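HUMAN: Mind sharing a backbone?

ASSISTANT:
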Amino acid sequence: MSTTSEDSPSDSSSERERPATPLATPTQTPPAGRIARSAMFRSLRYRNARLFFTGLAISNVGTWLQLTAMSLLVYRITGEATAVGITVALQFLPMLLLGAWAGAVADGVDRRKMAILTQSGLAAQALLLGVLDLSGVVNLGIVYVLSLVLGVVNAFDNPARRALVTELVDAPDIPNATSLNTAVMTGSRIFGPALAAALVSLVGTGWCFMFNGITFSAIIVSLVMIRPAEMFRMPRRPKGGKPVREALGWISGRNDMVVVFVTLVIISTFAFNQQVVLPKLADRKWGSDDAFGFVLAVMSVGSLIGSLLTARFQRVTHRWMMNSAVVLALSGFGLAWAPNLWVAFAWAVPMGIGGAGFIAGANAITQQEAPSDMRSRLMALQAVAFLGSTPIGGPITGVIADTVSAEWALAYGSVITLATVGWAIWFSRRRVVGHAGAMHATRDQLDDHIDTIQAAPSSNGTLELVVSRPEVGERDVLDVGELRPGVGLVGDNYVTRGSRETDDGSAHPEAELNIMSARSLAAVSDDRTRWPLAGDQLIVDIDLSTENLPAGTRLQVGGAVIEVTAKPHNGCAKFAQRFGQDAARWVNSRKDLRLRGINAIVVEAGEVRPGDTITKL
């Protein structure tokens, strides 16, 4: 049957491979923090995405039904929060031990087929637990063993399934698809825990496990029905090398990603253990342990809201992620000392919003920044950071609940979260201002990027950054910039700083705009937060060579039109101070490639935004 444009936005009928992007962000990246003009659910226009999210939504209702029932089962067997913490820890210990390696495996195989295999394994685990519970032979040891089995399968399922999401939509829609994936995962928690609270009292925990096993058929059928020809395949990781070390090296070289992963590790270790402490809070303060499921369901309403709010952004920012963490922390204090169930419901909603906004933000930032052939590994490392930390935080939370109080078992995570956000803000500001200690690339390392630079698109390029220089030494990274003839970038000091090359010291008429290739900058510094230090107003992904853009060439950039001038753009002493002598010599070494960039004038005024397409006229 032929595929209409409604079923798939692409006109291609053959399987497509999305080229690896050498930059830190996918092509045609929308501006940071700007609300999308298109629908919040724009990823659902892809048939494969609709199938996947439908199956996932059904299956995850069952998953949360089982997770809630397991916590209640263990708490009823032992009456101890510590035992619940151990159960949760066993579910996520394999992620800590195997997650990074499993991500490397997922980067080298067909992710759809791998997801079918792992989802089938999860279904078998749920059905076995249900049979053992219904037959009356289940005990704490059996629950521990099957929790560990669940964790092993999940360690391989998580990176494959999450990376598969990015192959169901085109590059500009990856952040939206990632956030919708989080929304589906968290939205399922609305029904799963509430359903568990109702079913456990009616039919017991065994049927909850059986129901979960049956719901896996939805996601398995959806995966089978996905059309490979309509997928946006990412390049497979070449065999050999040290894939996990490569991914860790990429993170450590990006200060912005260091912030994402460090905050994710700390906050998820200590602030996401509600399954451990809520059964005890519900039993002691809110009527019965069954109330745990209802509180978790209400919290999931907030989680759905937080995920959908994140999905509205075409490009998610660190500010959103940190603000969400603050909301999570403050709500944790309120929930811990809620005197009754209704007050607990009131605090559970913002806690869900903050938690989901934080996690969805971390997911989206990692997906939108990750090189395509490294995405599974990075998502696996993120899963290790988030889920793999539970074996540490879960038992600690359980011990605090049993020895100190259930209230402080929840609230101590809020204290640590606020401290972590404070560190992230301090670290980010310190790294932007204090760049003197940054590592500089060698000439050999720089030359390794020449092929990548020459592979830049000749037209239909992308505007990556818009940077204003209001005063000497100051940089403002803009979400929206206005270009104006004779002025250049409005708010920049082009006019006021003048030029030593003009007789009267006025601004050079052929240098209203300084423009540099993002690929050249990526060679000079793989830390994107330092790119504004180059001193160029526009950072672009397009071939700037003299052959492609001779003087006089006009370019449509967003709503503006600019013209390339004959004035050469050369590196200066400040460039050498910031990026090293090798980099300063290198950017001036290939005049034909214009590694340092170009100068341009504004022909037609208009607004420009990161993510705008650059087209030769």
